[in-house]
Design a protein that fits this description.
single chain, alpha+beta, Aminopeptidase, 2 domains, 8-stranded mixed sheet, 7-stranded mixed sheet, 8 helices, globular
């Protein structure tokens, strides 16, 4: 599971014993994230079920026993509504400046399985050309800051909270809802006219200041739009009127602001993720 290149340098899977050193490396590479931020997220990755045989954390470049580069991988299976196909979120790619010329080894190791859809949901604008050169295609152009409480609610719709201890129900996404609740997300089931619709929201801060919710999961963005008024009023009672959603253009039925300055997302593989599906991605494990 490792490859050797220059003298004293090799690329291999991150093991549990590497976590403190990898967290230290990433705290240097992403200076606004302290070491404990990375350790907490990596431990959450270790504590959850994952597809058999997948790397638990990702890959690292090691020079004379010291990590000099890392890319984190979050393997999962797409929610039932998308066919339960294997996928992997690439996150937090960093290589020390002295070893940047070997950084491609990390990505080559990470994306070698053609049966898996790999996706990047947090690339910075200056890295977009690099991501595209690695064979990734853009599937989300931007994001929209919405005020769903201003939409008219659908009559007779009810909303229930799903916790990590909620009893199993006849809902394909029940375990998805419970696992995200365990990680601190707000998991909801909206019921209307005999049908039930799952939604997951993550607490989020715009530019690390303005409190809001980010839509992490819905079966279809049309369902979020349809019940925006109900969901918006429910979230408003929790003190957050703003909801951030992925979008490829302004959504006419929602009140808010659309931007392409941030929020671009890329994928490579057989099953491109749908808008409104960030289940089991880096924000859930590290930012919640």
């Amino acid at each position: 599971m490792s490859s050797t290149t220059a003298v004293g340098l090799r690329c291999r899977r991150i093991a549990e014993g590497d976590l403190p050193a990898v967290a230290e490396l990433l705290s240097h590479g992403f200076r606004f994230r302290p070491k404990h931020y990375w350790l907490r997220g990596l431990q959450r990755q270790a504590d959850r079920p994952r597809p058999e045989g997948s790397p638990p954390y990702g890959y690292m470049l090691e020079h004379d026993g010291t990590p000099v580069g890392a890319v984190l991988l979050i393997h999962s299976v797409a929610p039932p509504a998308e066919g339960a196909v294997p996928r992997c979120n690439l996150s937090s790619w960093y290589v020390e400046p002295k070893f940047r010329s070997y950084g491609s080894l990390l990505i080559t190791s990470a994306i070698k399985d053609k049966a898996i859809t790999y996706f990047n949901v947090s690339s910075a604008p200056n890295t977009w050309p690099i991501v595209e050169a690695q064979g990734f295609s853009m599937y989300c152009r931007g994001e929209m800051f919405t005020l769903p409480a201003l939409n008219r609610p659908v009559a007779d719709a009810t909303i229930d909270v799903v916790t990590e201890t909620s009893q199993p129900a006849d809902l394909p996404e029940q375990e998805l809802l419970r696992q995200h609740a365990k990680f601190g997300c707000l998991s909801l089931v909206l019921s209307h006219a005999g049908q039930r619709y799952p939604f997951i929201f993550q607490r989020h801060r715009v530019k690390r200041v303005l409190p809001s919710f980010r839509l992490v999961y819905c079966r279809d963005m049309a369902e979020f739009v349809r019940f925006a008024g109900n969901l918006g009023r429910f979230l408003l009672k929790r003190g957050m009127p703003l909801v951030l959603v992925d979008a490829n253009a302004p959504i006419p039925s929602l009140i808010g602001h659309y931007t392409e300055r941030r929020g671009r997302k890329y994928a490579r593989g057989p099953h491109t993720p749908k808008l409104g599906d960030l289940a089991f991605t880096e924000g859930v494990f590290f930012d919640t």
